[in-house]
Amino acid sequence: MKLLNVLAPVGLAAAALVANPVLAGGVPPDDDPFSIAAVAPLERSADTERTVKQLWNTRHSWAGEFASDIEFVHSTDDVIYVLVSDNVAGVHDALPADVRPHTTVIHGGVADAAGSPTSDRGGWTGGNHIYSTNGVGETTGCTQGFTWRSWATGAVLGSTALHCYQDDDSPFIEWYHDGRHLGTRTQAGTLNNDVVLLRPAPGTSFNASIWVHLPGGGVEERVVTGAGANALHTPIAFYGRTSGGGDGEITARNHPGAGEMTTDAIEVRPGDSGGPVYSTYRDGTVQARGTVSSLTYTDTNRNGEYDNGEPVTSMIFIDATYTSGNLDASIYVP
């Protein structure tokens, strides 16, 4: 078994979304309005961000045949905006009744900009590609994991794999993403709990969503609704900076050690460590399952070390429930 704390080249070019979309120069059909404005102000609350993200994530359910016309959903202080490439009226009429009065549907486009695992748009998202340089100039790269809330303080904290932080010469304390300070190591797991919590950098925060690997390629940001129990043959998926993600099922629980879950031959690679392991459901919800920790492989080169290209036989991840009890924290749900 080889821990995945090696900096590896990024192998995923993800589709980008923006927090403040820019209207493109498209012209709507003559029989379709350019926009339909909100008729009542939005009363912003702690649940607003989750409502907006769920509106995006569940668009295939509520928008039906018009879902493919929706390009982006975001909000300002008092309005939810739905940007569409076509069928303004159709999308407006399909909106859930509780959000329709507060929503402006507008014909527009989404400009290419930051908003991916390689360049997050703010509010650090699980699955981000992160890196650190220690006190002796060594650099390591891993993947950001789930967001947690401390039971003792209520603080909202990020995470990655504990072994990403550990080094015999000098630990990796400060973590970065796309040239920006992401967070600082604050609490480490014990007793097989290969998870370390990160305090957000000043002026930043960790949000409740992760990048979900899509079957056809690319990623989508989705809000995590909580943690699920891990049972044998539970279908799971993961996202990691090197592999880009994959899926399979649980084949062993608490093996090789307490809190460690083993899967079938999911192709994790060095750099994927710390990434979120999750399950998705037809209604678009996502449940946390754990944190990518290590892999087992066939040592075809017989050198006692994992070499790129050697067959991977399983992924090992740390159970989210085990991490919760060990660190006195829960998966963050707004």
What does this structure look like?
The chain is mainly beta. The protein has 2 domains: 35-107; 117-334, Thrombin, subunit H, CATH 2.40.10. 10% of the residues lie in helices and 36% in strands. The protein contains 5 helices and 22 strands. The strands form 4 sheets. Strands 16-17-18-21-20-19 form a 6-stranded antiparallel beta barrel. A 6-stranded antiparallel sheet has the order 11-12-13-10-9-22. Strands 2-5-4-3 form a 4-stranded mixed sheet, with helices on one face. Strand 17 (246-252) and strand 18 form a beta hairpin. The protein is globular. It comes from Jiangella anatolica. InterPro entries: Peptidase_S1_PA (IPR009003), Peptidase_S1_PA_chymotrypsin (IPR043504). Residues 1-24 form the signal peptide. Keywords: Signal. This is Peptidase S1 domain-containing protein.
Count the E strands: 22
Instruction: Describe the global form.
Output: globular
Summed up, the domain count is 2
Major sheet: arrangement of strands: 16-17-18-21-20-19
Which percent range describes the beta-strand content? 35-45%
Distance between the termini: 36 Å
Helix content: under 10%
Radius of gyration: 21 Å
Structural class: mainly beta
The low-confidence runs, each spanning 5 or more residues with pLDDT under 50, are 1-29, 109-114
Instruction: Give the integer mean of the pLDDT values.
Output: 83
Largest sheet: 6 strands, antiparallel, barrel
Which architecture of the largest domain would the CATH scheme give at its second level?
Answer: Beta Barrel
Number of DSSP helical runs: 5
Overall CATH class of the largest domain: Mainly Beta
Order of helices and strands: EEHHEEHEEEEEEHEEEEEEEEEEEHE
* CATH-defined topology of the largest domain: Thrombin, subunit H
CATH H-level superfamily of the largest domain: Trypsin-like serine proteases
Organism: Jiangella anatolica
Protein name: Peptidase S1 domain-containing protein
InterPro entries: Peptidase_S1_PA (IPR009003), Peptidase_S1_PA_chymotrypsin (IPR043504)
Keywords: Signal
